[in-house]
Amino acid sequence: MRSLKYKDSKEIIRYILITVIIIAAATGIGWIFLMIGFPETNIVIVYLLSILITARFTRGYTYGLVAAVVATFTFNYFFTDPYYTFSVSDPAYFITFGIMTITAIITSTLTSKVKQNALESQEKEAETSALFHLTNRLTDAADIADIAGITTETISGIMNCRAACLCFDESGQPEQSFIQQLNSNEQVRRKVDDTAEVKHQIESLRSGYSIGSEFYDWPIYGRESILGILRIPKEHAVSMGESQKRLLRSMIESTALAMDRFRSARQQQESREETIQERYRSNLLRAISHDLRTPLSGIMGTSEILMDMTEPQDPRYDLAEGIHKDADWLHSLVENILSLTRLQDGRLTITKQLEAAEEVVGGAVGHILKRHPEYEITVDVPEEVLLVPMDAKLIEQVLINLLDNAIKHTPPSGEIKITVSQENSFATFSVADSGCGIAISDLPNIFQMFYTTHTGKADSQRSVGLGLPICEAIIKAHEGTIEGHNRTDQMGAEFIFTLPKEENNHAKPE
């Protein structure tokens, strides 16, 4: 700040000297004209010319106006009778002085205005050229770091300083290091001392920039979040004029647009890749499932025939039973995969009809006990018939998946229980087991697709993590809810889902 005041003082002194020298030169020329015998009007013209020259070589209107007044008094002092005094012997001189002063002031003002317009045009031209140069270079940037490097180099060259740039990641956190320009050909990476403090200063910013111990930090704002910080060394930032600040803000906006454009392009590319991968996976699963259904049905039928033709004591009976169980497991897996692909393609249609909850539960239990006759499943349903609008086939699949999941985690001697109850306008279904329960780390992820638990019991069973996600999708399609947690009364897990008892066919009031 002290250096800035010193610079201003030197400029004022220089402009005063220019004004004095020009007026003195005009006075000297006037003396020559007087000795030659030229009329006073020529001397007045010389003084008007001196005012024009003063306005040309000084800044602002002040010096031109001062020169106009001084020239009038100097002309009166040296070239009007009586000489060397400010007295006026002829009243007509007052008209001359007035016209001279007004003309000088108007001339000085117009000259200063033209000069100011020329300076503003030059500044705008330089600003446009700098922005074009920066934007042109940013189009070739390969990534965010490259954008930061190009911006730092360009601003350092235009502002004649060692600018720097600190980028933020996509989560809005500052990176651990920032780029700074050392010279015209070299950049370095410097470590950020305290990223949390940097973020706090930017978030609590109330002006256009933040003042630190080494830098003035200008934030680079994107459409949704902050993208980075442009850093100007403090000793240079203090002396920046308004035109330089305006240019800097424009260049920061260009940088923000380039960073936003790069992030958007990358997100679109990732989204396209995910869509393509998802399509390939769905097509592959659908093709595999359709190709497996027919041979699996044949294997299951043939194994059942062999079991009927063989005595239970015969070792071949165990082989046929094992084949039937494995084929049945594969068949259930194929059905889940087909349901998954229909859900992802939006082709799973829900056909709701009033169904007795007891019958749907009985169908699911019967299907499971066929595959696992060694288990006992307790069913608790209301005494009165509970009618619920549902797609019976899909809800039965939900119960089968939940029961199958319970059997995987529960020994044959353990308890598996289905409870159906009515709460307000919802029917509640609960499937509880007495197995090892759900690990705390697994609870947030149990409904994620292809997620499997890592407990010893679970690892001993075959699973691909499709059952629970399919259950969740079906229940949500019925406008219900589903959740899973560990039991509080004993070991084991419990899954609860609800279905609305009455369909909402009434339009919402506007």
From TrEMBL:
It is a multi-pass membrane protein. Keywords: ATP-binding, Kinase, Membrane, Nucleotide-binding, Phosphoprotein, Transferase, Transmembrane, Transmembrane helix, Two-component regulatory system. Residues 287-503 form the Histidine kinase domain. It is found in: Membrane. InterPro entries: GAF-like_dom_sf, HATPase_C_sf, HATPase_dom, His_kinase_dom, HisK_dim/P_dom, HisK_dim/P_sf, Histidine_kinase_KdpD, KdpD_sf. Its EC number is 2.7.13.3. The chain crosses the membrane at residues 12-36, 63-80, 92-111. The keyword Nucleotide-binding applies. It catalyses: ATP + protein L-histidine = ADP + protein N-phospho-L-histidine. This is histidine kinase. It comes from Lacrimispora defluvii. The lineage of its organism: Bacteria, Bacillati, Bacillota, Clostridia, Lachnospirales.
